Structure formats: structure tokens, C-alpha cells
Amino acid sequence: MKILRLNKAGLPQCWVSKEIAATLCVKQQVVWSLGDKRSILHGGYNNEGLRSVLSIPPIIACEGKTSRQCLTPALSNRTLFRRDDHFCLYCGKQFPYGLLTRDHIIPSSQGGEDSWQNLVSACQRCNSFKGARTPEEAGMELLAVPFTPNIYEFMYLSNRQIIGDQMAYLQSRFRDSHRHWQAA
Ligand SMILES: [Zn+2]
């Protein structure tokens, strides 16, 4: 399980390990926190032979900056397929990770970019049928409009083991389009 690190204003920064979260707690950099399901981390022994125990909340808002300040989330096959909930956006069937491909809506050969808005998940069959054509040229229809995830959605996409409190926090800031997507 990872800990969701926010800045003081509540904007997600990154997922951190329990150990890093513990360090932030000890250094008193945690300004506020959320969530009931705390992780227990055992530390070292003190001079009296007592072991320190830290209880770490699932969401921590911290002072200071993280190295990641980039606003457009990095695109990987994993996050792309997860955005599309592992559906092929042409035939509408769901596939396991290994059977999906990354399809450029406007093909690279026609100047299509590697961007969240120009990429969708497609099964191998649909992708090879489409080839180096646009959906219009291939007579295919996209089942949903591809979107660039906001930082809350990206945090959701980039971690597969999110616990209830973290999910509730992130989901409250998903855009409506993403909620519809999830429900579709
Ligand atoms: Zn398909």
C-alpha cells in the first residue's frame, strides 16, 4: 500500500512508500492528514529497548515541494489502458492488458501525436483493421472521447492498490466525463 501525498492546498503530488511517509511524519512536515485506516510501521529500538511505533494515515498533506511538478501526467500503456478501463474503444469489448494496443486516432504517418487526446486503447484486431487510417477513413467510430486525466484521475490511474479513503478523496475531484466513462 502507498500513501497519497498532497501539498498543503490538498493537490495530489505523488504516491509515496510508507517508509517515506514515516520520514515526513517524523520530520514534522505533515501539516494535515485524512483517513481512518492507518498503517503501522515499526521503527528502531531506543536505549530502553522499546521499539518505536508509527501510525501513518493513508493521506498526508505536506510542507515543501516534490520533484514532480509536471501538470500533464506521463502517458504509459498501463495508464492509458486503465483510463479506458481496458475496453477497446472501437469494438467495445474488454481485454486483458497483454491483448491491448495503443492506437493513434490520427495516425503518426499523418502527423498524429503521442498525446492523451490522440491515443486510445484498441484490441489487436481493430488496430490492425484500422491500420494507418483515421477512424473516418476506416469507417470506424470511437465509443468515447479520449481525455487528458487531471491530477486526481492520474493518481487513480497510476496506482492499482488504492484504499477506500484515498479513492473517495480522488474520486470527489474526477470530472463528470470520467464518471460517465467509468459507468459506461
Ligand atoms: Zn476492438
List the topology elements.
Layout: E1 3-7, E2 12-16, H1 18-26, E3 30-34, E4 39-45, E5 51-56, E6 59-62, H2 77-83, E7 100-104, E8 119-123, H3 124-130, H4 135-138, H5 151-157, H6 164-171, H7 176-183
Parallel strand pairs: 1-6
Antiparallel strand pairs: 1-2, 3-6, 4-5, 7-8
The protein binds zinc ion.
Report a brief summary of the structure:
By secondary structure, the chain is an alpha+beta fold. Helix content is 27%, strand content 23%. Among the domains are: 3-62, no CATH class; 77-138, DNA Binding (I), subunit A.
Walkthrough of the structure:
- There is one protein chain.
- A hairpin with a 4-residue loop joins strand 1 and strand 2.
- The chain is elongated.
- The protein has a four-stranded mixed sheet. Strands 4-5 form a two-stranded antiparallel ribbon. It has a two-stranded antiparallel ribbon with strand order 7-8.
- 27% of the residues lie in helices and 23% in strands.
- Among the domains are: 60 residues, no CATH class; 62 residues, DNA Binding (I), subunit A, CATH 1.10.30.50.
- The protein is built from seven helices and eight strands.
- By secondary structure, the protein is of the alpha+beta class.
- The longest helix has 9 residues.
- The site of zinc ion (ZN) has 8 residues, from strand 8 and helix 3.
- Zinc ion binds next to strand 8 and helix 3.
